[in-house]
Amino acid sequence: MWLQVFFLCLSCLTLPSQIQAQASLRRANDQAGRCHYTFTVASPEESSCTGSSTNPEMDGVLSRLTLLEALVSRLIAGEDGGAGAGIRANGEEALQEAYTQVTGEKNQLQQDKESLNRQVLELQRRLDELSQEAESLRQRPCKQTHTSGGTQRENRPASDPAYDLGNGAYQEMKAEVTEVPASHLIPEGNHNFTGCGELQSVGDPVVHRKADSITGKYGVWLQDPEPQAPYYTNRTVWRIDTVGKDVRQLFAYEDMDQFAKGFPMKVLVLPEPVESTGATMYRGSLYYQRKRSRTLIRYDLASESLASRHDLPHAGYHGQHPYSWGGYTDIDLAADEQGLWAIYSTSKAKGAIVISQLDPESLKVMKSWETNIRKNTVANAFMVCGRLYTVASYTAPNTTVNYEFDTATGVGRAVAVPFKNKYRYNSMVDYNHAQRKLYSWDNFHMVTYDIRLGRAGHGSS
């Protein structure tokens, strides 16, 4: 009998919980006298059954039934919870997948945006260059051409000294074009032939960049006045930070704009370490003094290799005859309209400045001059049109170019051309004859000065 009741109870458990709570058990005798137990469930409109059985056996069955109902309810609730967790897990997985996809699309859009921004900046830079070239062309005077022997040439302005030779001689000279060193075209003692002359004035310094670390306190920066195409152009900017124990890095920048922004296009590693700030650039090569030696080195920029080396005879080095600011500036290399020069001193000269013109290929001395001014009494020196000029002070904000020595005549004299050390620690001065500017490194600042030349004893050119 109890088993029948148990099965019946299990079938009842499939009913909703509200209906199960209203179920009741009733017993009755059939016509044969057998006992029958019946479950009765009230309709939703009826109230729950009242009263209880007076039979202890029936009370036990009801108690067991209640326990079974509670147990089944807990089991059902647990299964439902598992299903809910599964649904939540599936939902979270779908959300994670959607998030990953959206994030990937966002990153791709960001990359596309950055690429477009770079293209816009490049186009803007090109536009600025074209604008500058257009402005330069507008300011350039119109040119006329004359033909001699089937060869065209530009009509030079009347101020060109070549007109002193007469139109006929000028045309005859230009009819046959032969590439020769510029110094071969300069008659002895005549520096006005190529527009050269004496230094008349030095303009105010113009800052192009400020170094952002202690290694940039002093160094070398310049442009090649006669670059060798197609590897580099006269727009390429070169820089060496000379603060450090082993200076070998040569930074190349595409132009002044990229130099000002600090974006080098290439970094070359020099084969030998550099000594101080005396390096110069000329005809596709970097010329510099090897550290702790009197050895001069020519580094070819096109092949990125050491092209030649040569000891500068008897030259002091590593603090024997520096400029007044120190820095092991014993040997200062320079380039101008007439070629490559070394500014230094020897024990024989007793500290007086010696000027030597060097062969740009072999670095051998072609000719030397001894001046009557001591090297450690001046702050720096540079060459312009075969003339040596010295700067009196490297710290005074308002100083002068105080001495000139003309290699054409072998005569030196005192001069007084105003010169400004705006940042009061000027460690490098170099001349660029193509730009007709001085390049300088003044206490972390890389600056240029416009200069004005004039004929000896006359006005400006």
User: Which regions are unreliable across 5 or more consecutive residues at pLDDT < 50?
Assistant: 1-15, 46-52, 142-193
Query: Nearest-angstrom radius of gyration?
Result: 47 Å
Percent of residues in helices: 25-40%
Which structural category do the helix and sheet elements fall into?
Answer: alpha+beta
Run of helices and strands: HHEEHEEHEEEEEHEEEEEEEEEEEEEEEE
Count of extended strands:
25
Notes on the structure:
The protein is of the alpha+beta class. It is built from five helices and 25 strands. It has helices spanning 2-12, 17-22, 56-139, 167-175, 256-261; strands at 23-29, 35-41, 145-148, 151-154, 198-202, 206-210, 219-222, 237-241, 249-253, 266-269, 280-282, 285-289, 295-300, 305-311, 332-336, 339-344, 352-358, 365-374, 380-384, 387-391, 398-406, 411-420, 426-432, 437-442, 445-454. The strands form seven sheets. Strands 5, 6, 23, 24 and 25 form a five-stranded antiparallel beta sheet that branches. Strands 7-8-9-10 form a four-stranded antiparallel beta sheet. A four-stranded antiparallel beta sheet has the order 11-12-13-14, with no helix packed on it. A hairpin with a 4-residue loop joins strand 21 (398-406) and strand 22 (411-420). Helix 1 packs parallel to helix 3 (56-139).
